[in-house]
Amino acid sequence: GEKVEQHESTLSVREGDSAVINCTYTDTASSYFPWYKQEAGKSLHFVIDIRSNVDRKQSQRLIVLLDKKAKRFSLHITATQPEDSAIYFCAASPDSNYQLIWGSGTKLIIKP
Amino acid sequence: AQTIHQWPVAEIKAVGSPLSLGCTIKGKSSPNLYWYWQATGGTLQQLFYSITVGQVESVVQLNLSASRPKDDQFILSTEKLLLSHSGFYLCAWSLDWGAEQFFGPGTRLTVL
Description:
Radius of gyration of chain A: 13 Å
Order of helices and strands of chain A: EEEEEEEEEEE
Structural class of chain B: mainly beta
Oligomer: heterodimer
Number of strands of chain B: 11
Low-confidence stretches of chain A: none
């Protein structure tokens, strides 16, 4: 079955700099890749997603890149702000089922 | 506007006791529904999904069961709790598969 590895367990960047969080997956059939954010002690909120028919998607300060050959996808947060501090989870899923396989999470710390 | 409620907010239960957690979605007809479990500080594991009333599919076997007795209600239960059931339980809904999932506030379960 699908396995998703999230490479950075903690990432610390200075406010205003960019942050990059990387994930890899194993199943070539996976075609949907969302990102979610979890603030301390709270629930999850959708950040951005990408499907396998594109290799780049941007929403304001968020950019997600997908490299299907390398089975890797990444979240880029530009011009980071204190409110970006949270745990970010990546996930992957084939279209053919209703399951999301999650990465282990990256704690993003924005330093002043 | 759609709202999602989970109950209870938190629960402390004894090993071997029964459990029932609930989730209600208001303002959306026929959503896809999901149950997730998150170990403390850990990644997410999808437990169940449901695409229609009365039909629930299991993703992993964790001695838990789920039911969808109404279009807007999703119930997670077990007759006998294990220590390993401790964690954060999240209910979510989406319009369709491959769409943004909206998460409830979660139920924190401690099994002693």
